[in-house]
Here is the input.
Amino acid sequence: MDLPNVETYLTPHNLENITNWGEGWVWLAGGTWLFSEPQPHLKVLVDIQDLGWSEIIVEDDYLIIGATCPLIKLLEYPWLSEWTAAEGFKSAIAALAASFKVINMATVGGNICLALSVGTLAPMMVALEAIYEIWNLNGESRRVAAKNFQLGHCQTILKTGEILRRVLIPISNLKWQVNYQRFSVTASEPALAIVVGVRNQQQISCVIGASVVAPCLVEVANDEFLETGLINVLEGVSFIEDARASAIYRREVTAVLMREMLQELKI
Ligand SMILES: Cc1cc2nc3c(=O)[nH]c(=O)nc-3n(C[C@H](O)[C@H](O)[C@H](O)COP(=O)(O)OP(=O)(O)OC[C@H]3O[C@@H](n4cnc5c(N)ncnc54)[C@H](O)[C@@H]3O)c2cc1C
Here is the structure.
């Protein structure tokens, strides 16, 4: 789709070349979202594909995923067999399988920063206790926990001109058992509910997505009342109520997905 009011298209090789960020400026990654709607408020597109940020590397104790890494690369990456959490990423991306083009073009950073309530990667990142590295145009960087990044539907903590540079996942967490559950009325429709369950030695964590505006981490003691504990927590969660489904329906579907997740993780 044409973006009618865009006057300038920049392709920096280095962020230092961007000095005068202003109103109507936007980072352009894969463009799969930006070019899907008219975006009349946009004047300047800053294409980040030439920054060379598409890496997937192991550094220190982290798996590091560059912001412009296309989603397809997560499917093709030679995950080590002991990194059991990789299955969760594959399921999360397969959930977008209705659009082959999106998976090839869309980036990890674009998916996270767009911050749709139905976002497929964010619940996985929260479940694995990922850390987001954010840069600004003064050459400074900060790190935030994935669980603190998304504030609502299409709302994040990013300030004007800030950019997600990369995602760091502790290698030890990749060895956790992960189960990704998603429900939508038809396969090509956005999810009504997502549940990501994680089991490590100490605890069970569960992240709810799609039925709430931003990923919601639920942690309960791993004891004989685990299932009841998790389901009870849902009473206090604020679920989305809209034309697609009521809040009560979303809560019930989330509870069903939670039970399936617990079964899959053999808890
Ligand atoms: C019809 C349709 C249905 C969709 N349904 C789903 C769905 O059900 N689940 C789901 O997860 N996704 C869904 N998507 C979203 C799809 O996954 C996104 O289009 C994609 O993830 C965005 O990635 P991109 O790289 O193309 O980002 P772009 O389209 O280039 O950018 C998206 C937004 O993110 C910002 N951005 C991108 N990279 C960065 C960065 N590194 N730092 C800061 N800001 C950045 C951009 O400025 C822009 O605001 C859907 C998209 C479409 C068009």
